[in-house]
Amino acid sequence: MTQSDFVELEKKLRDAELRPTKQRLALAQLLYSQGNRHITAERLHSEAMEAGVAISLATIYNNLHQFTTAGLLREVVVDSSRSYFDTNVAPHHHFFHEEQGTLEDIAKSDLTVANIPPLPEGTEISSVDVIVRVNSPRR
What we know:
By secondary structure, the chain is α+β, with helices and mostly antiparallel strands. It folds into two domains: 3-85, Winged helix-like DNA-binding domain superfamily/Winged helix DNA-binding domain (Arc Repressor Mutant, subunit A, Orthogonal Bundle), CATH 1.10.10.10; 88-134. It is 34% helix and 21% strand. The chain contains four helices and six strands. It has a three-stranded antiparallel beta sheet. Strands 5-4-6 form a three-stranded mixed beta sheet, with no helix packed on it. β4 and β5 form a beta hairpin. It is globular, with a radius of gyration of 17 Å.
């Protein structure tokens, strides 16, 4: 990581009102150095271990949730046992490849949601998240 990359990540964390600790900076570097991506906490933990970053899985989870709360990540829950963290926080949807366990972005403009039922009284839509589950046809 270059000095300017380090400064940029540190600014990103400070702008999100997160203290740029050594561990947070290391995680931010792993998360954002490869462009937009979808990653599980377990995969990020493996990448951190491979990079020589000593950090527990619990700390990874805590930081991912802090990054999400701060608006730096978006959590995509595909089922009750699987969450992915998306570095692309702009509004968009996803294909979930069930066999590979991977997510792929769908541009917001490529999908239209229609016929939303009347909202419960006193509520408003904050977002609409669509996950289209796909798999290979059986032959």
